[in-house]
Design a protein that fits this description.
By secondary structure, this protein is mainly alpha-helical. It has a domain at 1-48: Pemi-like Protein 1, Chain: D. Helix content is 47%, strand content 11%. A two-stranded antiparallel sheet has the order 1-2. A hairpin with a 5-residue loop joins strand 1 and strand 2 (44-48). The mean pLDDT is 84.
């Protein structure tokens, strides 16, 4: 998909409409759910829930997780991995 920028109006109630071409490109259907992620710089990332689930499944595969584990076990593994990733990033930047 070609990168696109859209100017969107926010209504008084805080609603925004995602343009039809963006919804189509995302595979977002009427009534579908999205995940919103706001970073420290104020950038908003919108991901369909289907894509968010795929991303989590990919992380689990990359972490070598197979079989059934609890959500708590998965989250603890991700927290540990994130700490290691942060430490590695800090080491590379200094």
């Amino acid at each position: 998909m070609e990168p696109a920028t859209h100017k969107i109006r926010v209504t008084g109630s805080g609603r925004m409409s995602i343009p039809a071409d963006v919804r189509r490109a995302m595979g977002l259907e009427k009534g579908g759910f999205v995940q919103l992620k706001l970073d420290d710089e104020g950038h908003l990332e919108i991901t369909t829930m289907a894509r968010a689930i795929q991303n989590i499944q990919k992380m689990a595969r990359e972490d070598g997780l197979h079989g059934n584990i609890s959500v708590d076990e998965f989250l603890e593994l991700r927290r540990t991995a994130a700490k290691h990733e942060d430490a590695e990033m800090d080491r590379k930047h200094w």
